[in-house]
Amino acid sequence: xxxxxxxxxxxxxxxxxxxxxxxxxxxxxxxxxxxxxxxxxxxxxxxxxxxxxxxxxxxxxxxxxxxxxxxxxxxxxxxxxxxxxxxxxxxxxxxxxxxxxxxxxxxxxxxxxxxxxxxxxxxxxxxxxxxxxxxxxxxxxxxxxxxxxxxxxxxxxxxxxxxxxxxxxxxxxxxxxxxxxxxxxxxxxxxxxxxxxxxxxxxxxxxxxxxxxxxxxxxxxxxxxxxxxxxxxxxxxxxxxxxxxxxxxxxxxxxxxxxxxxxxxxxxxxxxxxxxxxxxxxxxxxxxxxxxxxxxxxxxxxxxxxxxxxxxxxxxxxxxxxxxxxxxxxxxxxxxxxxxxxxxxxxxxxxxxxxxxxxxxxxxxxxxxxxxxxxxxxxxxxxxxxxxxxxxxxxxxxxxxxxxxxxxxxxxxxxxxxxxxxxxxxxxxxxxxxxxxxxxxxxxxxxxxxxxxxxxxxxxxxxxxxxxxxxxxxxxxxxxxxxxxxxxxxxxxxxxxxxxxxxxxxxxxxxxxxxxxxxxxxxxxxxxxxxxxxxxxxxxxxxxxxxxxxxxxxxxxxxxxxxxxxx
Length: 567
Ligand code: SF4
Description:
Elements: E1 35-42, E2 46-53, E3 62-65, H1 84-92, H2 101-106, H3 112-121, H4 125-133, E4 137-138, E5 153-154, E6 160-165, H5 174-187, E7 191-194, H6 201-210, E8 216-218, H7 220-227, H8 237-250, E9 254-257, H9 279-291, H10 296-299, H11 301-311, E10 314-317, H12 332-350, E11 355-359, H13 368-378, E12 384-387, H14 399-413, E13 417-419, H15 432-453, H16 459-470, H17 474-479, H18 484-494, H19 515-544, E14 553-555, E15 558-560
Parallel strand pairs: 6-7, 6-13, 7-8, 8-9, 9-10, 10-11, 11-12, 12-13
Antiparallel strand pairs: 1-2, 2-3, 4-5, 14-15
This protein binds iron/sulfur cluster.
The site of iron/sulfur cluster has 8 residues, from helix 19.
């Protein structure tokens, strides 16, 4: 059995002054070109970061939603504690022990976190409060993660993406995982899940939480299994609650809990092509069968709620029976579990605990919409949080693409947050490059969904980039893109000279066949012809009026002589 890990009260990775002895080296994370971080300020000390992109050609600067967090801080010391004064003030102002944002929202209180989110999303604070109170959105914000910049997950808001990181027993480095975190938020991850399963789970998580400007999620049963020596049959609710408290004390913002994997549903998976593919789902299924008892996460759910509300940890109710292949999509096991997740949502809401619902998985395109429709109905519009889904199983090595197709569709239909999939899915632990590929693929899916949903303002970035593209402002086109580095590198491969960055063509079609250049010339020609036609018309009008340079004016029935002419 592994050593029991201590609960950490500290909010610093290392005490100040001892950072030089920290064992990890962190390289700088470079920023974006032509960009600066600026803050939108509001009452109550709320300062919301945006990335301001400077444009050329007389265009105004363009502000982009920014998840990268405060820059220039030593990861050995962690990020500044932005929310600490807000959290402390609420403790002083009368505290019944329930610290959840939903609890405040239901009492009509608009917290600074809600005001922060309102600015980020360009929505009214009262609307934000109401959506949280109704359970249609969550604002994950553990009181022990004061470094986080508030964000919201709900289908009335921008579609969010999650990036998974974490050690495994085969490959393990805390430094690598902290680097992946910083890398993921740079490229736009809205939340990060630490799925560490190897050694040093507790220490890895401490480093990650202290350096994360975005909410952190975990799957506590993983650490619990380490405590049980890797034997699922030795798990129990006391061990689980102890692990929840340990992680909540560290500042984890949401927990994936597989409380919907009920004993009666496990036989439904017997004839599946890929059985139970969720790690947490398979662990709990083994426990249920070994003891022939109902899942203790289900039977003891109210005890779990007591921990969640004390720290404001949100539920991410896990889809332990999600399909792992197209053949298993929308089957009896998956939908039976969804029914239970709806029942658990009501219990959590009774405690004012925030809830989102996890979803599949592997689902062909024609079966995707049914997932959203059922989830919204059964779980009373609690936010849906889906992994992909992968729309086909035939492309290992490219599953960031197979899943981003499904993610764009399910986001359009109403999913609030998309969990990324990297090219390494099914094959190995993702490295830093895979994290970037996964994040970018999912930023595309989420933004495509925002456009399809008609989210206010979503199209402005497309319009700004398209205008830059048509006007051959190449650097602006790169700088407005999700990945300016790659866009510029691709252009540089064939046209590296500075002059090519204002040229009216690129190497794809060349100067004679550049359709945008030709269109520009067509427009100039039309404008010229319209101008000439206009001149000719005016000339004819002039001749028809007698060809006089000065035309006498009339006033009160009398001709008025223009200067130098007799009437
Ligand atoms: S050459 Fe072709 S690809 Fe390149 S800018 Fe012109 S139209 Fe676009």
